[in-house]
Amino acid sequence: MSDQKKTTDAKDESELLGLRDEIDRIDGDILQLISQRAKCAERVAEVKLKADPEHAVFYRPEREAQVLNRIMAANPGPLANEDMARLFREIMSACLAHEKPIEVAYLGPEGTFTQQATKKHFGQWVKSRPMPAIDEVFREVEAGAVQYGVVPIENSTEGVVNHTLDTFITSNIHICGEVELRIHQHLMAGPNTKRDKITRIYSHQQSLAQCRKWLDAHMPHAERIAVNSNAEAAKRVQGEWNSAAIAGELASELYDLDIIESNVEDSPDNSTRFLIIGREEVGPSGDDKTSLVVSMRNEPGALYNLLKPFKEFGVDMTRLESRPSLTGNWTYVFFIDFVGHTSEENVQKTLASLKQTAADVKVLGSYPKGVI
Ligand SMILES: C=C(O[C@@H]1C=C(C(=O)O)C=C[C@H]1O)C(=O)O
């Protein structure tokens, strides 16, 4: 080694040591600050309990959205806004669990995208409980067995999850948040199954539909079998030769399957939106959405009358979906999402005007727009 190289190496080595000292010092500061933050959260819990010992609400989605939005706006870099928000998401998750651990039911079994969405929204400290069906998630929340629930509502490729929409028609639950997840589907099988021997492919019907073109092109002869969830598909192929599942990464890890081909979804920006459901109404965060179910009488101009108040009061509608009403043949209810919170004046005027023409207007909830 040349003398010059030796000197450079020694210089680099001493710079590294200096940087590591600096990191140790910063970590010490972060540690103290996180502890101070946790103590504040502890105190917040005491204040909430003192104000209302029976019905204290510990999780505040509007406040969490404000914290994350503020962090993203103030982020000096070099870490990306979303990465920084994820770190703070976890700090809040630990602080909330320290205040009061919360339990959340989700559409299971373990390993579903809904579980992934639950962790994305509440952080790693949440206690999540898998339920076998969407209406059971609603029932657990309504009965008070858990505080919140997470259900899928729409996929960018396959459209709405009808079962979730229909359950809202009859339930008294509130929407208190939303979270969007990029969906990557993988073809997976046990170690004894070779790719060219696969005769059956299991998955949830929505996932099979999201990978239709890929399956037509690469696995045209394999039988496609729809099961209750993609995690159940993964569980099944664990003990079955010559079978594969289409599911997310979490499922392959949980059920010990090898990924044969990654990202087999047809659309590269395939994503699913999930709703957080609860029993309480949520206050305004400053950047909110509201969801409604509206029943209209079957008469000429009904749809026009439904849309008119939104134009009149300048409220931005982001989604309109119609579903059979479940009460009479050929009558429909409309699911509407719009920007704003029920505490805002233009929203209140819109709702008042809608109530004059509609047979029924049910506010499912105002909630903060998904942040991460
Ligand atoms: C600390 C609070 O309680 C919870 C924890 C939060 C946090 O750690 O920042 C924010 C909102 C609540 O979910 C609060 O209500 O401010």
UniProtKB/TrEMBL annotation:
<keyword id="KW-0028">Amino-acid biosynthesis</keyword>
<keyword id="KW-0511">Multifunctional enzyme</keyword>
<feature type="domain" description="Prephenate dehydratase">
    <location>
        <begin position="103"/>
        <end position="279"/>
    </location>
</feature>
<dbReference type="InterPro" id="IPR045865">
    <property type="entry name" value="ACT-like_dom_sf"/>
</dbReference>
<protein>
    <recommendedName>
        <fullName>Bifunctional chorismate mutase/prephenate dehydratase</fullName>
        <ecNumber>4.2.1.51</ecNumber>
        <ecNumber>5.4.99.5</ecNumber>
    </recommendedName>
</protein>
<keyword id="KW-0963">Cytoplasm</keyword>
<keyword id="KW-0057">Aromatic amino acid biosynthesis</keyword>
<dbReference type="InterPro" id="IPR001086">
    <property type="entry name" value="Preph_deHydtase"/>
</dbReference>
<feature type="site" description="Essential for prephenate dehydratase activity">
    <location>
        <position position="272"/>
    </location>
</feature>
<dbReference type="InterPro" id="IPR018528">
    <property type="entry name" value="Preph_deHydtase_CS"/>
</dbReference>
<dbReference type="InterPro" id="IPR036263">
    <property type="entry name" value="Chorismate_II_sf"/>
</dbReference>
<dbReference type="GO" id="GO:0005737">
    <property type="term" value="C:cytoplasm"/>
</dbReference>
<dbReference type="GO" id="GO:0009094">
    <property type="term" value="P:L-phenylalanine biosynthetic process"/>
</dbReference>
<dbReference type="Pfam" id="PF01842">
    <property type="entry name" value="ACT"/>
</dbReference>
<dbReference type="InterPro" id="IPR002701">
    <property type="entry name" value="CM_II_prokaryot"/>
</dbReference>
<dbReference type="GO" id="GO:0004106">
    <property type="term" value="F:chorismate mutase activity"/>
</dbReference>
<comment type="function">
    <text>Catalyzes the Claisen rearrangement of chorismate to prephenate and the decarboxylation/dehydration of prephenate to phenylpyruvate.</text>
</comment>
<comment type="pathway">
    <text>Amino-acid biosynthesis; L-phenylalanine biosynthesis; phenylpyruvate from prephenate: step 1/1.</text>
</comment>
<dbReference type="InterPro" id="IPR010957">
    <property type="entry name" value="G/b/e-P-prot_chorismate_mutase"/>
</dbReference>
<feature type="domain" description="ACT">
    <location>
        <begin position="291"/>
        <end position="368"/>
    </location>
</feature>
<dbReference type="Pfam" id="PF00800">
    <property type="entry name" value="PDT"/>
</dbReference>
<dbReference type="InterPro" id="IPR036979">
    <property type="entry name" value="CM_dom_sf"/>
</dbReference>
<dbReference type="InterPro" id="IPR008242">
    <property type="entry name" value="Chor_mutase/pphenate_deHydtase"/>
</dbReference>
<comment type="pathway">
    <text>Metabolic intermediate biosynthesis; prephenate biosynthesis; prephenate from chorismate: step 1/1.</text>
</comment>
<dbReference type="GO" id="GO:0046417">
    <property type="term" value="P:chorismate metabolic process"/>
</dbReference>
<keyword id="KW-0584">Phenylalanine biosynthesis</keyword>
<keyword id="KW-0456">Lyase</keyword>
<dbReference type="GO" id="GO:0004664">
    <property type="term" value="F:prephenate dehydratase activity"/>
</dbReference>
<dbReference type="InterPro" id="IPR002912">
    <property type="entry name" value="ACT_dom"/>
</dbReference>
<feature type="domain" description="Chorismate mutase">
    <location>
        <begin position="10"/>
        <end position="103"/>
    </location>
</feature>
<keyword id="KW-0413">Isomerase</keyword>
<dbReference type="Pfam" id="PF01817">
    <property type="entry name" value="CM_2"/>
</dbReference>
